[in-house]
Amino acid sequence: MTDPQHRSPPPLQGFLRARFARDHYLGLPLTTGALAVLSTLLLFALIAYEVSTHGALTRLDQQLADWFNRHAFSPLTEAVLGYTHLHGTIGVLAMGALLLWHMLRGQQWHWAANLLLVLPGGMLFNFALKHVFARLRPSFEDPILVLHSYSFPSGHTIGATLLYAVLAAYLLNQPALTAGIAARLHTGARGAAVAIVGGALLLVALTAFSRVYLGAHFLSDVLGAMLLGTAWFAFWTTVVFTARRHYSALPRSN
């Protein structure tokens, strides 16, 4: 007779326990990554549905766009223009190239592969989606910017989301860099982590704000881009590092 204390757990319970195991490559990191991808994609789908059906969110889009166009003023407009141009395609790819060079110099091949999959890959995917939705940009009698490409999702915003998501994740996984940030801030490792994540979120939010303020995008354009960028980052980061943990756990042959 089987000892009740050594009886195997029910299949569902065993499956769930394995999904939250910290020491297995198919455990907690994969589970949290998959949940992040699914949740952000669902929210993106809701925004995309509102855009496609001209729902209530698009009415808020127009009201907010008109408000910013009426209340734009100098020198804020010039400062916002400078910031938004820094986060255009060339600017984001140039910053990404510097980060890639740092990763390659440190022989951190998995991080370099992750950056290449996330940043240029996500920006190309976003460009393709623009032509799927074919949404026109905001229009005004007295525009600050005049752009003739499609609007949804925002290319500047997804570029910033992808870049700063990878940068934040990279810094959080570099103990020496995190310790240096903590020393400069006179705080502990937790405080440094909060500063890194908060800084990344602020930079993305400023990019999104710049696009709405300048009348280049609607609110839903930048929200959709942030969600899509987060989903793309979470997907490829989960794939790359799940594979890395798997191959690291394989027995080495002599």
Automatic annotation (TrEMBL):
Keywords: Membrane, Transmembrane, Transmembrane helix. It comes from the Bacteria. Residues 112-237 form the Phosphatidic acid phosphatase type 2/haloperoxidase domain. The chain crosses the membrane at residues 25-49, 80-101, 113-133, 153-172, 193-216, 222-243. Gene3D superfamilies: Phosphatidic acid phosphatase type 2/haloperoxidase. The keyword Amino-acid biosynthesis does not apply. CDD domains: PAP2_like_2. The keyword Phosphoprotein does not apply. PANTHER family: AT30094P, SPHINGOSINE-1-PHOSPHATE PHOSPHOHYDROLASE. This is Phosphatidylglycerophosphatase B. The lineage of its organism: Bacteria, Pseudomonadati, Pseudomonadota, Betaproteobacteria, Burkholderiales. The gene is pgpB.
